[in-house]
Specification:
mainly beta, SH3 type barrels, OB fold (Dihydrolipoamide Acetyltransferase, E2P), 3 domains, five-stranded antiparallel beta sheet, flat
């Protein structure tokens, strides 16, 4: 059971018998009243977004979801294909279901795929991933201001802002929740 104080981005809960995950949440208190939590929830099956307000006394059950460790194979026809490494069974997840997760999937990488009622819905990503810089402009000599950034295209097609010292061929660590550059990987 979860309470609104347990809310965090990506938390999966049942609301009125339907599976959702938390996109945004904000605690607010009006005058003498009790505190409430304003949320933005995304339906796990149909991707519709709803806004709801909950009391701090409400409780929620987690949806009955199954996780399987699967290997990402390739992208084709708007689907991302995964394989169960134990049974060699292959599944396809539509790009709409993956959302921004598509930018962090590396071929032959192992990921936790989430299933609800036997249907593959999405991929649970690690907090950060390491990707290679395939395209970026060279830095200007003497560019030493600390807050200067430049765009860099990564091996998956994602474009992030990186410091001037990052060059093509470097590997960088990217936060999968925000899409921000974290550090240059060794």
């Amino acid at each position: 059971m979860f309470s609104p104080s347990d809310f965090r981005k990506g938390l999966r809960i049942l609301v009125d018998g339907e599976p959702y995950y938390v996109v945004e949440f904000q605690h607010f208190k009006m005058g003498r009243g009790k505190a409430n939590i304003r949320t933005k929830l995304k339906h796990i099956k149909n991707n519709s977004v709803v806004e709801k307000v909950f009391s701090t006394n409400d409780s929620f059950k987690p949806p009955d979801m199954e996780e399987k460790k699967m290997q990402y194979l390739y992208e084709g026809d708007g689907d991302f294909h995964f394989m169960d490494t134990d049974t060699f069974e292959q599944i396809a997840i539509p790009v709409e279901n993956l959302g921004d997760a598509k930018w962090y999937l590396l071929e032959e990488g192992e990921y936790r795929v989430l299933f609800l009622d036997g249907q593959a819905l999405s991929v649970d990503l690690p907090a950060s991933t390491i990707l290679e810089v395939v395209e970026t402009e060279p830095s200007a000599r003497g560019d030493t201001v600390s807050n200067v950034t430049k765009p860099a295209k990564l091996s998956t097609g994602l474009v992030v802002k990186v410091p001037p010292f990052v060059k093509e061929g470097d590997k960088v660590k990217v936060d999968t929740r925000t899409g921000d550059y974290l550090e240059r990987a060794k």
